[in-house]
């Protein structure tokens, strides 16, 4: 479906800094997120494990979502936010998440840049423990489809130079793994991740936003790729940095073809295709690196 152009009559307010939120990484949430992704690693569910259940490397997106949404709602008019789709993401770990710890999340919108397909907003999120030490940091990019408006912030703030380049989207994979996204997967992921956005579960809302159908969360596509790479290559090392650029929406049911590409320094590069065939369109490209042994 096409989407009607929308011009914002007032600029997006960058620098929005909602009050910090406190969230708890409880073990039920950690296990539910792993289960939504059909994780097979016993450490994701072992409540007898020293240190508790091992968090999936992308679990921070679950903790960050309420704060990110609050910042966006504070900065955008009501008719703009439903057009938003996750466009880019960067996650940096200072240390792994611990079961049942409480984290303080600070959020700030730092850039608003015009792209061909819409307005791109970059939000910075920082999560710290009770001692004030940073646990992880993220830069999340939201694309407001079909919207134009005044720019704010710098290109560096928009994180464009830190994300995977589209130029490696045609590389030959070193290995391939297929994961399924069946009917209802977006609903299961929504409930288990506690990431509530109706374009992923409500067809009427998705169509009002100019989509033909509900679409899978970008973080779900990314999490499946991260799971596949961790199973094959992490060697029990915790993730240090994950980046992603989302290239096309994923509708269900579908097969996701996860392709491990050549590395670049300490980064493992990957591509996820929206379909099981080698010529299926790329849905996501990204990188992951692990801590030193």
Automatic annotation (TrEMBL):
Pfam families in alphabetical order: FAS1_DH_region (PF13452), MaoC_dehydratas (PF01575)
Coiled-coil parts of chain: none
GO biological process terms, semicolon-separated: fatty acid beta-oxidation
All copies of domain FAS1-like dehydratase, residue ranges: 26-136
Domain MaoC-like positions: 196-261
InterPro entries: FAS1-like_DH_region, HotDog_dom_sf, MaoC-like_dom
Molecular function (Gene Ontology), one example: 17-beta-hydroxysteroid dehydrogenase (NAD+) activity
Signal peptide: none
Protein name: MaoC-like domain-containing protein
Originating organism: Luteimonas aestuarii
């Amino acid at each position: 479906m096409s989407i009607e152009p929308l011009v914002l009559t007032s600029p997006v307010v960058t620098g929005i800094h909602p009050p910090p939120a406190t969230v708890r990484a409880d073990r039920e949430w950690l296990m539910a997120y792993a289960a939504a992704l059909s994780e097979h690693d016993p450490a994701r569910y072992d409540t007898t494990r020293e240190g508790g259940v091992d968090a999936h490397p992308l679990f921070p997106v679950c903790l960050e979502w309420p704060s990110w949404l609050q910042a966006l709602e504070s900065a955008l008019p009501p008719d703009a936010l439903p057009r938003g789709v996750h466009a880019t993401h960067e996650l940096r770990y200072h240390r792994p998440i611990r079961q049942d710890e409480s984290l303080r999340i600070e959020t700030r919108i730092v850039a608003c840049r015009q792209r061909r397909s819409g307005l791109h907003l970059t939000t910075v999120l920082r999560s710290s423990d009770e001692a004030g030490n940073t646990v992880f940091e993220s830069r999340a990019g939201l694309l407001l489809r079909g919207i134009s408006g005044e720019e704010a912030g710098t290109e560096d703030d928009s994180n464009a130079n830190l994300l995977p380049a589209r130029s490696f989207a045609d590389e030959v994979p070193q290995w391939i793994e297929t994961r399924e996204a069946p009917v209802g997967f977006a609903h299961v992921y929504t409930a288990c991740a506690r990431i509530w956005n109706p374009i992923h579960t409500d067809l009427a809302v998705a169509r009002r936003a100019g989509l033909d159908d509900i679409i899978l969360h970008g973080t779900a596509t990314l999490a499946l790729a991260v799971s596949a790479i961790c199973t094959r290559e992490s060697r029990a090392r915790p993730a240090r940095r994950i980046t992603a650029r989302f290239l096309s929406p994923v509708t269900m049911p579908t097969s996701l073809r996860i392709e491990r590409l050549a590395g670049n320094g300490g980064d493992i590069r990957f591509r996820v295709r929206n379909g099981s065939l080698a010529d299926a369109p790329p849905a996501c490209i990204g990188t992951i690196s692990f801590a030193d042994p």
